[in-house]
Structures are given as structure tokens and as C-alpha cells.
Task: structure prediction
Amino acid sequence: MDARFEQEVLELLTPKIKSVLRQTDWQNRKDLEQELILMVLSTIKRKEFKQLPSFFELMDKEENM
Result:
């Protein structure tokens, strides 16, 4: 993975990370933010992504509900 991809992922996740951090004490927010970013980056580097369903798989699932 290149650094640009990692940066784009972090930029997309930053609002959610900030939102989650509001649930913690302000004293711990910076440390927790760094830990979350490290977790995201390590997951990207290990390429541990869930297999996303295709459009047709989603449609089949919706029909079966």
C-alpha cells in the first residue's frame, strides 16, 4: 500500500474517530486517537479487509428478507 492510500483512508475515518473520541475523557483522547490511527494503519498494511459483498449479493440478500 502506498502512503497516499493510507492518508486517504485516515482522512475518511477522521470524522468517525473524532466522534468516538468524544465518548472518552479529554485527558485520554490524544493517546487513544494515536492508538486508533496505528490500528487502522496496521490493518491496512496487513490487508485485513472484510470481503465486501457484490451488488448482486446484496440484492439477493434483500430479496430473501
